[in-house]
């Protein structure tokens, strides 16, 4: 099974946290060439702390994908790391920020197969987690490529502000709704791919069947 779960910074064990931070270094530093701080072959920052919740996608006891959630009234990347770029934006402090979203493509293909809709499952996990915690919206800063991916999903995302990080690099502050329509959209996508009824995918946490990818 492919399990979508959440765990807090305080609850995550050393093996899982080390694996998670190593995969983040592989994704954000090695592949995407982001200017992130790394040490001991791991990427983590000041926002990996007691205020943090991680959503993890796990198969065969290995992390396939992940994201990080922090409530907006606590220090986060929008208000702190990129605060000068977005200090004119008023954010609802009772909602959450999402960052460090990734899918390890090699592991996804190895354990789940090429046709598995891992990103859609992780988007659904974002929404289900948020609805379970009674958040209406998710706020995130994304790159141009991720902004394009999100628009193609059909999710009714809202562009709050576009800002220039470098001469040739813009970033985008988005509002991602966690309403019933958004949940139904991704539940239908995932359900169709796996021959499941969408209503079976509205829970949190949830698990998905896996076919032998070989």
| Terminal CA distance | 16 Å
Mean pLDDT: 95
Radius of gyration, rounded?
17 Å
Approximate helicity band: 25-40%
The count of helical stretches stands at 6
- Secondary structural class: alpha+beta
N to C succession of SSEs:
EHEEEEHEHHEHEEHE
Poorly predicted regions: none
How many distinct beta strands?
10
Largest sheet entry: 8 strands, mixed
Strand fraction? 25-35%
The largest sheet has its strands arranged as: 8-9-7-6-5-4-1-10
Outline type:
globular
Characterization of this structure:
With 214 residues, the chain is of the alpha+beta class. The chain contains six helices and ten strands; from the N terminus they run βαββββαβααβαββαβ. The protein has helices at residues 14-31, 77-81, 105-112, 118-132, 144-152, 180-194; strands spanning 2-8, 38-39, 42-43, 53-59, 62-71, 96-103, 137-142, 158-166, 169-177, 206-208. The strands form two sheets. It has an eight-stranded mixed beta sheet with strand order 8-9-7-6-5-4-1-10, with helices on both faces. Strands 2-3 form a two-stranded antiparallel ribbon. α4 (118-132) runs antiparallel to α6 (180-194). It starts with a strand and ends in a 6-residue tail after the last strand.
């Amino acid at each position: 099974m492919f399990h979508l779960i959440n765990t807090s910074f305080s609850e995550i064990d050393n093996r899982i946290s080390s694996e998670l931070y190593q995969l983040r270094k592989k994704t954000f530093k090695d592949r995407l060439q982001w200017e992130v701080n790394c040490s001991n072959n791991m990427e983590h920052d000041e926002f990996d702390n007691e205020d943090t919740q991680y959503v993890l996608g796990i198969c065969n006891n290995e992390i396939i994908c992940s994201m990080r959630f922090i409530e907006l009234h606590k220090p986060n990347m929008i208000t702190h790391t990129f605060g000068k770029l977005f200090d004119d934006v008023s954010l609802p402090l009772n909602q959450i920020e999402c960052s460090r979203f990734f899918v390890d493509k090699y592991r996804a293909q190895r354990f789940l197969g090429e046709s598995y809709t891992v990103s859609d499952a992780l988007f659904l996990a974002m929404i289900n987690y948020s609805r379970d915690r009674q958040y209406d919206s998710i706020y995130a800063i994304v790159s141009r490529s991720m902004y394009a991916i999100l628009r193609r999903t059909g999710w009714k995302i809202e562009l709050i502000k576009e800002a220039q990080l470098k001469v040739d690099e813009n970033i985008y502050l988005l509002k991602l709704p966690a309403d019933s329509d958004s949940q139904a959209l991704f539940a239908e996508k995932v359900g169709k791919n796996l021959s499941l009824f969408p209503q079976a995918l509205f829970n949190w946490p949830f698990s998905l069947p896996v076919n032998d990818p070989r």
